[in-house]
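Thought: the user wants the 3D structure for the chain below. I'll pass the sequence to the structure tool as-is, report back what it returns, then summarize two notable features.
Action: structure_tool
Action Input:
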Amino acid sequence: MGDSATPRFSTWEHAVQWLGAQPGQESLVVAANYDDPLLQAADRYWRSQEWQAIRTRLPATRGAALDVGAGRGIASYALARDGFQVTALEPDGSSLVGAEAIRQLALTSKLPIAVTQDFSERLPFEDDHFDVVFARAVLHHTHDLTAVCSEFMRVLKPGGRLIAVREHVISRAEDLPRFLEIHPLHKLYGGENAFQLHEYVDALKSCGLRVDEVIAPLESPINFAPQTLESLQHEIAKRLTRGIPGLMQLAARFLAMRSVWSVTRGQLTRIDNRPGRLYSFMAHKP
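Observation:
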């Protein structure tokens, strides 16, 4: 997908349609959960290591959940499968990647998912309404982090939980153009963005949310999915040994040891300055 051959699209739906038709892009389409049938893609997400890790951070009491920027509804499906009454907030009306896709998914799966077409900057819900606000790759698209986090704070019930996952982080503001240049989908439609780590944390805290956990890129499959822990360790071993047979397998087995992986992950996190690396945030309303 070189610059000269890559078209620009006015809608995300058309961009995804074009991407899905390109030879050799199947793995990218599947990794982004844009493949069909949608029910199958949503069920795969529900069974993924990413969702398994998210599930451990959901409240034990299954109440009302808001899925912000729900896209085609894979997280709405997962929340509903796990017992929540879900409201999916998605401004795009598309039948492929937007609100109409979620409606069809709810109908096909017979799960309790209601759909509201609106934006996250001004949520059309009453105060103290949701037990969970879930946002997957949402915050980095906003222009005003503090305003959006304040809205999340407002609609959460006291004690309610915010789960904001897979947010792009840059080390310096000057890194943003480089991140946008290497992003595999930004050239098709635009709309990508990234903030510095402290900007996310400051926005969450400034509106009164209590930050419980900041999850680093290599700390959980929440961030490194669709890779599994095993495939991630294998890739690191391959890079460390330059793919030398035997030595690579030995390094992978060594990294799989819990104590070794803990130290290695910490060291790699400290030196990781990749523009656009993914962090996740867990917070609650006091």
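Final Answer: Structure generated. Strands lie at 64-68, 85-89, 113-116, 130-136, 156-170, 195-196, 210-215, 277-284. The first helix runs from residue 12 to 20.
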